[in-house]
Write a structure and sequence with these properties.
0% strand; single chain; 9 helices; mainly alpha
Length: 213
């Protein structure tokens, strides 16, 4: 074998090795991509099952589904948010709900729903002042977030900030002062009716007494 033939054989060996490496790497990458896609699809399926269970008030079952979704996708912000919601409505673990909403926010810093939900849990736990910054942030991210306006209004009412609360209610398309006014008028009318009935009853009793005399 001449030196040129040996060099050519060596080149073929190197090329074959490189081609083998490329094929192996490509197949491995494709396999990993397929596996990742399957995990995402399975996680989404568990998320939807969790939402259905939560909608039926089966919170323990919903939490179990969300756990599976998170196991398959540890960065699944929606699953953390929904699990926190289930914990809150279950009414057993406000700290776990807050932890889940916080994790969802860490994974998706621009997640208005998670901010709103965490604010609701703070407010439910008697920490209205701590919930307001979360409602503020939710509204910064989504100025049309009606529930966040309503929740912030309720938090402000608990802090006796009535004017600011009414402003939030108005932004949400609600006018509670009108209901208060209507209720006040109704109370007055009922009162007037009761007085009129009492007067009529008194006059009738007086007439009967005179006739009896």
């Amino acid at each position: 074998m001449t030196p040129s033939q040996a060099s050519a054989d060596w080149c073929r060996v190197v090329v074959a090795a490189l081609l083998g490496w490329v094929v192996t790497t490509t197949v491995a990458a494709q396999t990993e991509t397929i596996a990742a896609t399957e995990r995402m699809a399975a996680a989404e399926s568990y998320l939807k099952r969790g939402e259905a269970a939560a909608g039926a008030h089966e919170y323990d079952q919903a939490i179990a589904y969300y756990n599976e979704a998170i196991r398959l996708r540890p960065d699944y912000a929606e699953a953390y948010n929904d699990r926190g919601h289930a914990y809150h409505w279950k009414g057993s673990d406000g700290d776990q709900a807050i932890a889940d909403f916080t994790r969802a926010i860490e994974l998706r810093p621009n997640y208005p729903t998670a901010y709103n939900n965490r604010g609701v849990v703070y407010m439910a736990g008697g920490q209205a002042a701590k919930g307001i910054p979360d409602f503020d942030r939710a509204l910064e991210l989504n100025p049309n977030f009606r529930n966040a306006y309503i929740n912030r209004a309720n938090a402000r009412l608990r802090l006796f900030r009535v004017g600011a609360a009414l402003d939030d209610f108005h932004r949400a398309g609600m006018y509670p002062e009108r209901l208060i006014a209507i209720f006040g008028v109704a109370v007055v009318l009922v009162g007037v009716g009761i007085i009129a009935l009492r007067r009529r009853s008194t006059r009738t009793a007086g007439s009967w007494k005179r006739e009896a005399d």
